[in-house]
Amino acid sequence: MYNNKTPPMTSYSAPKPDSPNNQTHNDTFTDDPEGPDKTPCPLQSKAQGKRPLSASPAPLPSKRQASSLHKPLSYKDVPQALPMPSSHPPTQLSLTHHTGALFTAPPQTLLLHACNTQGTWGAGIALAFKQAYPKAYAIYHAYCTVEHSFKAGNSVPVGTALLIPPVDKGTPHWIGCLFTSRRYGKGRDGVESIVRSTGTAVEGVLELVRAVNEGVVGDRDKEGIAGVRMCRINSGKFGVEWKRTEEVLRGIVVREGWVGGVEVWDQEGV
């Protein structure tokens, strides 16, 4: 169970949602957060050139625009006690399988993928996420290396999740980071640990989805999460057979106010 009594998240500069996104991406449908990043983090890039003296300052967002922005949510926003089951007998999470491109989801869809706690989306589907959603990656990277620090022994707890609102222009998708392994590559966690962490991470993100959707009720300036998609998480370089992960996901009890189903997208329909 998550502990929400830890200190609040350290403030860091989240990228603006209207920043350009000119990257291309490759829809690969197995999680592969393997390898160090070969491209710089957007938060670490230096500004190129100077603004002309005659340039007018950018207008401040109106109250309506500002109120429409969500903030990233983490395990610190999850209550100690999850809501009661939504039905009696309890209903378990439903998975539906689809073939096609993960990133062509409708607006306000949440896209889930498995992550390490070192702040790296270096290969496979993780790299595709980084290329398609560079601003979301910057938030994830800062969360792992500024709010937490793997090297300092204060890494993100495995079995938790980070929910990032739409911040990349032209890609109105929420991004859900499921922390299922501490490291990537040869140092990744064992299969049993990854599977166990997957269950609690997905429970945590579903509770965050509930909080977001309840928070937008009656607020015309905000949009909630319309649906949830994922690839076959853990089945790339994390080395976990998809059947093991699927079994854990189907065993999750749907709580009051939770989304009851998740779409699993696969390019080959395997």
From TrEMBL:
GO terms for molecular function: phosphoprotein phosphatase activity. Keywords: Hydrolase, Protein phosphatase. It is an enzyme of class 3 (hydrolase). GO terms for biological process: peptidyl-glutamate ADP-deribosylation. Residues 82-270 form the Macro domain. SUPFAM superfamilies: Macro domain-like. Residues 1-27 have a biased composition (Polar residues). Pfam families: Macro (PF01661). SMART domains: A1pp. It catalyses: ADP-alpha-D-ribose 1''-phosphate + H2O = ADP-D-ribose + phosphate. The keyword Ribosomal protein does not apply. InterPro entries: ADP-ribose_metab_enzymes (IPR050892), Macro_dom (IPR002589), Macro_dom-like (IPR043472). CDD domains: Macro_Poa1p-like. It comes from the Eukaryota. Its EC number is 3.1.3.84. Residues 1-69 are annotated as: Disordered. Highly specific phosphatase involved in the metabolism of ADP-ribose 1''-phosphate (Appr1p) which is produced as a consequence of tRNA splicing. Belongs to the POA1 family. This is ADP-ribose 1''-phosphate phosphatase.
